[in-house]
Amino acid sequence: MEQPRAVVIGAGVGGLTAAAALHRRGWSVTVLERAAALDPVGAGIALAPNAQRALDTLGLGDGVRALAAWQGAGELRTPGGRRLARMDSAAAAERFGGPVVLLHRATLVELLTAQLPEGRVRTGAPAELTDPGDAGRPARVTTADGEYEADLVVGADGVHSAVRRALFPAHPGPRYAGFTTWRLVVPAPERPFAPHETWGRGLLWGSQPLRDGRVYAYAAAFTPAGGHAPDDENAELLRLFGHWHRPVPDLLAATGPGAVLRHDVRAMTDPLPAYHRGRTALLGDAAHAMAPTLGQGGNQAIEDAVVLAHHLPPHLTDKAASGALAAYTRDRLPRTMDVVRRSARAARAISLTGAPAVALRNTAVAAATRLVPGLLLRGFDGIADWRPPAPASRKPS
Asked: Which domain covers residue 282, as residue numbers?
């Protein structure tokens, strides 16, 4: 039988995972990416045990685990440095089957791209879904160089997904979640520190060491959408966080001009009717954009990709395609929307700006985690303990 063909629109983590997983299932895959190159960007990604087990189906899980940078305890702190709670990585590994692994996003992109044959990822290739396909006809994707026909199109084109709008034009899409985020990767300061997240009044900062000796830092502020620093985003971070406990000011001092990424956070609180239509499927932020407060956006995209490939056989009939995509929606829509809602609830905890409310929150967190050890970990029950439905088939020779 003829090898089935898939076109993946978007070469982010979710799109590349889908491409690698489908390739292992025997599909011919082409990835179309709007950007001119898959350049490394200043952002890390935290891969929880659920995503690591998904990557096991591609033979990448152990390699990712080997990149774990920190095996000690993480902390939740106040801007003055007072510790509110402690999260032990060993306890997390025991509860969920492994530690969280933080790595540079570019490292993961390289690992995934290496799973594909040469030339399967096309950069500088904006693509438009012109026909989602149906049981009796292929899907069609148009680029500046011509048209692709495919047995499957995967829309992995992010929070502002044009594929989603083409499939479900009446859906409102993601809405502003109330806060903006900054991300940066900088050299580690001379003075060692424990990984931490720090909650202020409508402000959040996180500092996480990477295995290569750098630090991934992220920040958030509840502020109107569309804002930009009048001078430089690093200067804005200095104004907001420069007086917080160390190593925050040290990291900001080591940040060069233009090294800070800023993005407004948008979340899809209204679920889509389905994660597919015709022969086209959505995954990741295109299907279920969520607040980053549980660190699950990329993890859920990876889950989506391996579940999608799991349901798609290497020899595809029209009837099998329809049933496979319906099964994908049934598996993924309830789970991912639960994570969207849980991420939104976590965001509300850091949205408080009034001094009395923040003091009450801090007291409650400190008391609850002291009285109930492992309380923070319980927030990831049903998320980090997920397992993929089955390993993918062996990669074709």
From this structure: 5-71+98-174+268-347
